[in-house]
């Protein structure tokens, strides 16, 4: 009897050990699959906008203490960028929870353009009003773009188109508008060859002849961006295979090439701001939840500077940024 009981106990222990061992193997496989599938099964805060597809975030802090973000609108099953039909506004006070204020401007509201073709926007507060500057196609081609201007009395829109900036027609734009500390406003734009010119206060006319930007390299593709910190000007852009930048002591350059900001993120189109003492990097992903280079989602990372004021490289993460008070 005792011998039989002992044999049964041994068998039970063996079976339990076998099941436990295989369970651990199964768990290990699940963990590996989840990691491999990232960011499709993300449990972090990136991307920050998930209920719709958004791209090209233009982030700003206005006078209400919130972070405002204006984005282009990607379609779920898009096969090209011609289906991008409008812009949306989002706001946040903690960098994690975002309020969707809905569509603020649609291609149907642009009398001089075609349906769709509403590419990466930029924004500015000037003349006690909020402005969106944006590229839009006249006839349905990337070679006949204009830089439109729309205005609103409130940051959440809606925005009303008031025309386009003369002198920058016919180019794939991706504009960036930048106001310096002295109140002068500059427009950066271009594809393959970056341009800059100061704007008149009405934001509808160039105040000078455009200049070609010297940035110490030849890898510029699109998505010009300008920000300023500690008296230094940072000209950054998308090289087609990630974000890169240069530094100068004035908004025109020439800029001393510094290398990569976000080298691993293809199609990097970013904006940068400081909120409550922390610097942030806004950009978009292509591969979340079945996305593509035509169906993207906005994400945010922390941005850090070195002691010599150069920028530390950004690496896309599912964790993203944490809530701030």
Automatic annotation (TrEMBL):
Organism in which the protein naturally occurs: Litoribaculum gwangyangense
Entry superkingdom: Bacteria
Protein name: Glycosyl hydrolase family 43
Protein family (similarity comment): Belongs to the glycosyl hydrolase 43 family.
Assigned keywords, A-Z: Carbohydrate metabolism, Glycosidase, Hydrolase, Polysaccharide degradation, Xylan degradation
CDD domains for this protein: GH43_AXH_like
Phylogenetic classification of the source organism: Bacteria, Pseudomonadati, Bacteroidota, Flavobacteriia, Flavobacteriales
